[in-house]
Amino acid sequence: MTAEREQARGEAADWHILLHDTPEDETLRADFRAWLERSDQHRAAWDALGTTEESRHVNLLYNKGRPFGKSESYGYGRT
Length: 79
Hints:
The protein is mainly alpha-helical. The protein has 4 helices and no strands. The N and C termini lie far apart (about 35 Å).
């Protein structure tokens, strides 16, 4: 695994924890969206976390109860 990929995976895990702990924080959500859109490696690392039940729960909280998939272009909370 490359150093960049490993870093992205660590950052994704950090985001996962932060979003789980404070899913209502709008500033945190905006920062997360910016991080996610900054790199394909960020998206891939986040998707890798999405395979766990806990990540699906965070995603539902983050997306205000609406499930979403990859077809929504990583719009996390956007309509």
